[in-house]
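Annual report, structural modelling task.

Input specification for the coproporphyrinogen III complex:
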Amino acid sequence: MPLSDAPLLLALAGDRPSRTPVWFMRQAGRSLPEYRELRVGTRMLDACLTPDLAAEITLQPVRRHGVDAAVFFSDIVIPLRLAGVEVEIEPGRGPVFANPVRTAADVDRITAIDPEGLDATAIAEAVRLVTAELGDTPLIGFAGAPFTLAAYLVEGGPSKEHMRARAMMHADPDSWNRLAGWLARISRRFLEAQRDAGASVVQLFDSWAGSLSPADYRAFVAPHSRAALEGIGIPTIHFGVGTGPFLSDMRLGGIADGVGVDWRQTLDEAAAILGPDVTLQGNIDPALLAAPWPVLEAHVQDVLARGRAARAHIVNLGHGVPPETDPDQLTRIVELVHAG
Ligand code: CP3
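The model returned the following structure:
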């Protein structure tokens, strides 16, 4: 089968392939014992920048579960690290920045870094190793959306309501727009490096966009997310959590081929809002991965049935795989979806 006939790519083009494609956000990670074994003694971001390690971790879930796509093992903060920004991922916590970007002067300093100068050699090398092994299975490249990156960068670390980033939009809209515009260029560069090395699809993660009002999303965020994706030249998926109140904006004016839906809204509801020109991705509730198989099975069947309301459907979770998930549950989901 040529790569162009892969079910994921057909679904993003609006077709309904004979096999419904399925993959999982955070499929490469802590739910797999083989991942935990490989990661011993290596910090998260160092693992991402070690090409053979990143490639092997990317391939592990494809081998184990038979999913229809690999998602590149990396992190949304990697392009910032490559741009020279001091960042670490604290286990159990998330990204932490040594110097939060809070004032106009902080924004001046960080935006003086030219995104074009970012050295993506390690990323390109890892992507090439992955695609050489994947054959007809597509690789999904990804990046963080400007707001989700800013939610960490302005705060300096993880936060619940991303108050500082949301405050900057209103207190100093000029600084906000300069920062978000720069983050869009940083993420764009990361996406292009993955595309140029062989990724077939890209997904933009706006995991924390759900903390925004629809008006703020439209005014301060959507234009920057659109800039990160527009004209990239390969199919795109735009994913957010809690974005139900402004779901139609997640199409970014029609440039997203696929939109991710979390578990708070059914896929038939989402299809009614988004219309016939976009493919839906989702939306198994990650909490149900901990339920007995018959309960999870009934839920997956319901997701599949409601997904028929969309022009095409890529099965996924509503958000990432929780670390404590029994990986056999994921394998069973893949078998069920492929059995049709
Ligand atoms: O999906 C995949 O399997 C591909 C790899 C991937 C990772 N992070 C690996 C990772 C992807 C696509 C991401 C994106 C990412 N990173 C997002 C957007 C997606 C989402 O889940 O909402 C966000 C918000 C981040 C930032 C981040 N990185 C967080 C909040 C954490 C968790 C911190 C923790 O320990 O709980 C990370 C770390 C991270 N990124 C891990 C993995 C496998 C865990 C690292 C470990 O093994 O300790």
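The two ends are 20 Å apart (CA to CA).
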